[in-house]
Design brief:
Distance between the termini: 28 Å
Number of strands: 2
Radius of gyration: 16 Å
Number of helices: 2
Helix content: 25-40%
Number of domains: 1
Strand content: under 5%
Structural class: mainly alpha
Strand order of the largest sheet: 1-2
Shape: globular
């Protein structure tokens, strides 16, 4: 809350500041990753770059097509979504997509 709309959709934020995530036990990968940010997929607390890439493209394409062909670009305007970055003079949809893009760049 308050961004989820109802308590039933909430849980503590995960991996928000997790900058040194290790590999799965027994994987012996020898490195850590900064996994802060990004979106979870399908309620399983996994973050998948393929699914994220498809969703990022879909949202950016939706924004671009609405901007060029549509009449409701203001629906994406700053302050329209209930997200933390909703008062920075950037359309909220682009703020949300950037959150995922920054995560993807780290992966």
């Amino acid at each position: 809350m308050p961004f989820a709309g109802s308590d039933k959709w909430t849980h503590p934020a995960g991996h928000v500041l997790d900058k040194n995530a290790t590999c799965a036990p027994g994987a012996n990968c020898g490195y850590t990753l900064d996994v802060a940010g990004g979106w979870y997929d399908a309620g399983d607390h996994g973050k998948y770059v393929v699914n994220a890439g498809i969703t990022v493209w879909t949202l950016l394409n939706w924004y671009e097509r609405t901007r060029v062909f549509g009449s409701s670009i203001d629906d994406f305007g700053d302050g329209k979504f209930q997200i933390p970055e909703n008062a920075n003079r950037i359309p909220d949809l682009l703020d949300e997509v950037r959150w995922e893009l920054e995560f993807l760049m780290k992966m």
